[in-house]
Every structure is written in C-alpha cells, then in structure tokens.
Design brief:
Strand order of the largest sheet: 5-6-7-8-10-9
Number of strands: 10
Number of helices: 7
Shape: globular
Structural class: alpha+beta
Strand content: 15-25%
Order of helices and strands: HHHEEEEHHEEEHEHEE
Number of domains: 2
Largest sheet: 6 strands, mixed
Distance between the termini: 57 Å
Length: about 250
C-alpha cells in the first residue's frame, strides 16, 4: 500500500517549523558548509519519523520498492535548500514505477578539490516472522519467568506498566530489559538494570552478562558493560537476531 499525506500528518507541523528555521539559517549565512547542526534534534527526529512511515521493501521480499520514499526524501531535501539533486534509477519491472531509485544530493564544501561521500540506503528489510517474537510471550511463559527468574516491573503514577527487566540468577544473565516507548528517556531502563545489579550483588554474583541487541549496545555501554564478542541471540524455532555479548563486573554490596 502506498503512503498518503495522512500517514505523516502528525509530524508535519513540527517538521515545517524546523525546516523553515534551517532554511533561514542558510539564507542568512549563519549556517555554512562544515558547521554542525547543534540543537537540530527536532529536525532529525521528524525526518526519521517521516522516513519510517513509508514502506520501502524490495520486490524480491514482496514489496513495491523505494519509489515513494525517494520522492518524499527528494522533496524534503529541496525544502531544506539542497537543490543539487540527481535521480539515478535502475530499471526493475517488478518495482513500482518500473525502477529502483537512487538519489544523489551534493552539498559544496569549502574545499571542492575533494569529495566526501556519505552513502545510505532507501530500502528496508521485511518485518520477518512476527510469530517468532509473539510465540515466546504467552501467559504461561510469563508465569514461568516470574516463578524462576528475578523480575522487576516499573509502573507510572497511574499504575500503568512502564517497563520490566528480567534476570536469570543462576546464570548471571540479564534476559530482558524493556521500556514502554511512551515512558522512554526518563531513566527507567537505567533504574531497571540497577535493580537487577543490586539483586545480583545481594546473591553474591561476581558479574552479569547480557546479549544486547545492536541498538541497545550504547545503552549498556553507558552503564559500564564491556563488549566481549558478536553473536546471535536465539528467538527459538530457528530464528535469531544479531547481538553483542557484553559483561560487567560487580562490586560487593554496599
């Protein structure tokens, strides 16, 4: 299904405001090539939200391709004042519009004798087998975890679950740390891990290990966990995801 304007209307107001602010900086000469966009977090967030709202799965994986996303991105870059844009389309009769689009944006720097290429991709991977995730979380498996693991739950003032964490005390392994997106960036994840570490110290465990998903590696790194190796985290039924094995030595209880 092709995205419509309604798919991203929620972010349009903030995006338009931030884009206009950046355009004014460029026109005034206050934003020059090489300058860092300090304080433009809103722009990055709104652009990312707009991008992920548009499906771009390749035809080989059952999608229509990247045409809708390329058209959207080109329009957004022009709104930011980047007019030196070139489309290089590869023919593919199985894709929407018969092409697999590529978009080149050029931003002149102070030294034009050299070129720095920043390359990314428009396509995304298909969602995969959702049952590999949902089949693991049933009332029975949750009850078993509560009975055999150390489980901590964080609640909001209104009594809503904001997150939970799970420790395998015999193996010294953090098995889960999840925070509701609506409660993210409030220190809940850090507090949950702290609760697991406190319990592990009380049990006399010398340290903890975690198979961290790739997007959570910076989070655990900030909490003192060191990278040991890359691995695959099993989801069962032959499914798995890439992960980083990380560990942390624990001191004695205070």
């Amino acid at each position: 299904m092709s995205p419509t304007r309604e798919d991203v209307v929620e972010v349009a107001s903030t995006r338009d405001r931030v884009v206009e602010h950046v355009r004014q900086l460029i026109q005034k000469g206050e934003l020059k090539p090489g300058d860092r966009l300090h304080g433009e977090r809103d722009l990055a967030v709104e652009l990312q939200r707009g991008l992920v709202a548009i499906p771009a799965v390749c035809p080989a994986s059952g999608g229509e391709g990247e045409l809708d996303k390329a058209v959207w991105l080109e329009a957004e870059l022009r709104r930011l004042g980047l007019d030196d844009l070139t489309r290089c389309d590869a023919p593919d009769p199985a894709a929407k519009g018969g092409v697999r689009p590529n978009l080149i944006a050029r931003l002149p720097g102070r030294d034009r004798s050299r070129t720095l290429w920043l390359m990314s991709h428009l396509d995304i991977v298909p969602p995969g087998d959702l049952a590999a995730w949902t089949a693991r979380a049933t009332p029975a498996t949750c009850a078993d975890a509560i009975a055999t693991r150390y489980v901590v739950i964080a609640e909001t003032a209104a009594g809503r679950i904001a997150g939970f964490a799970q420790l395998h005390p015999q193996e010294g392994a953090i098995e889960a740390v999840y925070v509701d997106p609506d409660s993210a960036r409030h220190g809940i994840g850090r507090a949950l891990v702290g609760a697991l570490e406190a319990d592990a110290r009380a049990r006399g465990l010398p340290g903890l290990v975690v198979e961290a998903s790739l997007n959570s590696v910076p989070f655990y790194g900030a909490l003192g966990y060191a990278h040991e190796c890359w691995s695959q985290h099993s989801l069962g039924a032959g499914h798995g995801i890439a992960c980083a094995v990380m560990s942390k030595r624990l001191g004695a209880p205070s």
